[in-house]
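Action item from last week, closing it out:
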Amino acid sequence: MLCSVCTANITIHMVRKMKKEMGAVVVKHNRLIEGKYDLTIQEKRIVLWLISQVREKEINYLTINIKDFSSFLGISGNDIQNQFMRVIESLMERVVKIFNEEKNEVEHVHWVDYAKYNLGENTATFRISEELIPYLVDLHRNFTKFSLKTALNLKSAYAIRVYELLKQYQKIGERTITIQELRDYCGIKEEQYLLYSNLKANVLERAKLEINNKTDLRIDYIEVKKNRKVSAIKFIIKVIIDITSPYNEIEKSINPIDNDTERLELFDKMRSYGVIEATANELLNNYEFIIIRASIENITLRIRNGEVINNTGGYLVYLIRNYYKNMSSSEIAEKSVAEKRQEAEARLEAAAKASIAAFHEMVNDHQRKQ
């Protein structure tokens, strides 16, 4: 049986093999950006990668190495092939609703309509539905583009969805989305997040935190109320760098410490507190590193202060999984939209300054450890 460090190193090796392809750009027609669909984070990552690899109308068959690609999907264990095939089977059932207001039409299109597995070579070949091709290639107007690598760094499917929607409006600098539209765009089921406070904590705040820490956008939002009830969200959008530029160094500015090194460090710390290997990998694949690190620091401080924790591993997992549930949900004071916008922009400026300060602190800390 492989040791935990060896297993983590194997995962990191797989990630590095895929990095060349991660430099691609995702380009979508705005009708597809505004399509209504429900995808898991694993399905979303597959779709984004497939879209980024489409170059010509004739090339809608794409082949990947299952073992290498599975690391991005959070798939691990002894039955990677079967797990991967189950994800693809689920994806092949998913449909995106594309609205064409000019023609007053609605298309229901599958993302992937064909899959073949070569079990001997451990590869999978997909075919993107031909009906999607017009929304992906030969686009000269009404399209949105963003970095594949940036999108794959986001751990929440909601964060990816909000990021896409705000990238579409980045030149305008703001976008208002009704609560119902937000639910539809994100594929939130009717029984999910019935209370606005739950929607805010699990969708809005999580997306905001991830987008501000991992992408080229800095965002905030204003709650638009009707009859004292939040009816819409007005997003404020600022671009800090063109992440699709071939000269972009965004990864260095946002993540000065190599992402693989940080992953291994957090993996080792979780294992040292008794978190089992499979759970540690699952947390690293589905939660932001900053939340995992904050949770580790929380439990470390408690132990240093003499607190006795019987099951440190279980408690650490609880802290990570319940981070958003413990966030404050205090209401924003009643102010005019103009005042709220000024307040939001001020917070964005403060966040930008804090990001620069944090960057220098991380660099200094990294140098001290050398």
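Closing note: Strands lie at 25-29, 61-65, 95-100, 105-110, 112-118, 123-128, 143-147, 174-178, 217-226, 229-239.
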